[in-house]
Design goal:
The chain has about 60 residues and is an all-alpha fold. It has two helices and no strands. It is flat.
Length: about 60
């Protein structure tokens, strides 16, 4: 697969900019909502610990 030509790169950049402007209100609202949310670290850490333990178990079984 070759590189993009000049007009393809320009079109891709324009589409990317349009996509950013189209999604900007949702991104802004999401960032504002995340600032006001309470931290839920146990909801992240508990599954992460289980995954790490499972991987260690799988490695130990080999």
């Amino acid at each position: 697969m070759g590189t993009f030509s000049g007009w393809e790169s320009l079109l891709l950049g324009a589409l990317l900019i349009l996509l950013i402007f189209w999604m900007r209100p949702g991104i802004k609202a999401s960032l504002e909502q995340s600032k006001n949310a309470t931290a839920d670290w146990p909801g992240v850490l508990v599954p992460l610990v289980f995954v790490v333990m499972f991987v260690i178990f799988l490695v130990a079984m080999v």
